[in-house]
Amino acid sequence: MKDTLGVLLAGGAGERLFPLTRDRAKPAVPFGGHYRIIDITLSNCINSGLRRVYIMTQYKALSLNRHIREGWTGIVAQELGEFFEILPPMQRTGANWYMGTADAVYQNIYSIGSEQPKYVIILSGDHIYKMDYSRMLDHHIATKAEATLATLPIAPDEVSRFGVVEVSQSGEIMGFEEKPKSTSFRSPFNPNAVDASMGIYIFNTETLLKELIADAEDPNSKHDFGHNILPNILGKKKMVAYNFVDENRQQALYWRDVGTLDAYYDANLDLCSVSPTFNLYDKHWPLRTRVRQYPPAKFVFGEPGRTGKAVNSVITAGVIISGAEVLNSVLSQDVRVNSYSEVDSSIIFSHVNIGRHCRIRRAIIDRDVQIPEGTVIGYDQVEDKRRYFVTPSGLTIVTRDRSLFENPVEPEFQQRY
């Protein structure tokens, strides 16, 4: 991995996670109470021995940049040439912001070349999974490939959400389709599945730079790896598939794109189960984040009808559950739930205060929200739609912008589905 440079794409707008991405980048959205989404990929880098990483940010990146600067840049040895470096759009090659995933890398082609790596691994900062990238690099080198794609098996009816590949028995990629409505491709290892791209690529540096330059000069290109770079090298350069090896060590492969509110909600609530699919407590594959200084969580009062307790929930530092009940929920730092309130199957971001006698169910409450005494959320969709954001599945999203509570928000919100 010393000869490898990581390029982590973290500039997506995350429109399908609106309104959680209204004021923050998608990779900066909290996950599991304690983490941000980007922490999962960055932890994979550290655990894989990948210690030179450019992080390309763009939209609403203030909180993301601060999180990386305060939590990640200091854990590598800069005196040894290691770094986690934030690269905002610098318009070095033109006047545009990043116009696609390939263009984002192309606009930083000078920075990549200055490090002189043999290999470049392209990563995304908005997926939840555990993967040892060094194994994929070993496969890339052993097969003498010029490009390697990480793949995982999916059901044929899911192909419209992925780039899918046709793989030979030897593992070489013979075909590629980006989000087709249907495909005739089938995995040579499972005739009932299709091999899908995970959006993780390893390139020989020389191959990557030449393809990026050629793509930048094509006026008809979307400047995207899936739409342009990979199809363009198909049949010209040796491109192989690498079957995803899951470090989560569960029976089923775990890889989640938490790009929609419902997928994000489900992935978080899974962490509250007795045996969650995604294991946060695995010492074999530790997950890291920026650690904020908060006091321990506290549960107070034990009177009948006024007992502070949490059941099947993830509770982080600084939380006070004061004579309230929390069930099947994820609470981020510095949350207070006051007496006689009940929070059920919900995700509460940091610095939220829930007043007395509140009832909250199937909700995501954004940071810094103050919930007035007696508020009821998640029990009356008609009333919730008048005041908050409600997904088609009935999930209620509460933001800290009080002006939104005074006007109908449903038409604008529904346009995003």
TrEMBL record:
Catalytic activity: alpha-D-glucose 1-phosphate + ATP + H(+) = ADP-alpha-D-glucose + diphosphate
Binding site residues for alpha-D-glucose 1-phosphate: Y98, G163, E178, K179, S197
The Glucose-1-phosphate adenylyltransferase/Bifunctional protein GlmU-like C-terminal hexapeptide domain, residue ranges: 295-398
E.C. numbers: 2.7.7.27
Pathway participation: Glycan biosynthesis; glycogen biosynthesis
Keyword list, A-Z: ATP-binding, Carbohydrate metabolism, Glycogen biosynthesis, Glycogen metabolism, Nucleotide-binding, Nucleotidyltransferase, Transferase
Top EC category: transferase
Top-level taxon in the UniProt lineage: Bacteria
Pfam family, one: NTP_transferase
The Nucleotidyl transferase domain, residue ranges: 6-272
GO MF, any single term: glucose-1-phosphate adenylyltransferase activity
Residues at the site labelled Could play a key role in the communication between the regulatory and the substrate sites: Q58, W97
Known partners and oligomeric status: Homotetramer.
UniProt cross-references to NCBIfam families, sorted A to Z: glgC, PRK00725.1, PRK00844.1
UniProt function note: Involved in the biosynthesis of ADP-glucose, a building block required for the elongation reactions to produce glycogen. Catalyzes the reaction between ATP and alpha-D-glucose 1-phosphate (G1P) to produce pyrophosphate and ADP-Glc.
PANTHER family: GLUCOSE-1-PHOSPHATE ADENYLYLTRANSFERASE, GLUCOSE-1-PHOSPHATE ADENYLYLTRANSFERASE-RELATED
Family indicated by similarity: Belongs to the bacterial/plant glucose-1-phosphate adenylyltransferase family.
Record-given protein name: Glucose-1-phosphate adenylyltransferase
Lineage: Bacteria, Pseudomonadati, Acidobacteriota, Terriglobia, Terriglobales
